[in-house]
Amino acid sequence: MSLDESLAAVVAEAVAPILAELRDLRATVEALRPPQFISVDEAAKRLDVSTQTITAMCKRGELVHRRAGRRLLVSAESIRPTDPATVARLAREARS
């Protein structure tokens, strides 16, 4: 084993507990983060469907949602496109 390999092994062993603690902290922060809600228009755009479809999905309980006055807001976490074409389109839009 060369000096570089020995040094890398020592550093990896020393850093491993810190990385594990960081993963635990990240999970804790994610659990404490309040849910993000988006408009019906944005949800429809992300799923490439009409706003009426989003409203119907909320009424059927398929999407997590809430009301803010007269506005209907949809949980961004409940919007998960599964169509590969939609995922690709959203990725392109995010990059631009």
Distance between the termini: 47 Å
Q: Output the CATH topology of the largest domain.
A: Arc Repressor Mutant, subunit A
Give the helices and strands as they follow along the chain: HEHHEEH
What's the overall average pLDDT, rounded?
88
Report the sheet-strand fraction.
5-15%
Helix coverage percent of residues?
55-70%
Total domain modules: 2
Q: What ranges have pLDDT less than 50 throughout 5 or more consecutive residues? A: none
The count of strands amounts to: 3
Determine and state the CATH class of the largest domain. Mainly Alpha
Rg, Cα atoms, Å: 21 Å
Number of helices: 4
CATH-scheme architecture of the largest domain? Orthogonal Bundle
- The geometry reads as elongated
Largest sheet: 3 strands, antiparallel
Q: Provide the spatial order of strands within the biggest beta sheet.
A: 1-3-2
Structural class: alpha+beta
Summarize this entry quickly:
With 96 residues, the chain is of the alpha+beta class. It has helices spanning 3-32, 40-47, 51-59, 84-95, and strands at residues 37-39, 65-68, 71-75.
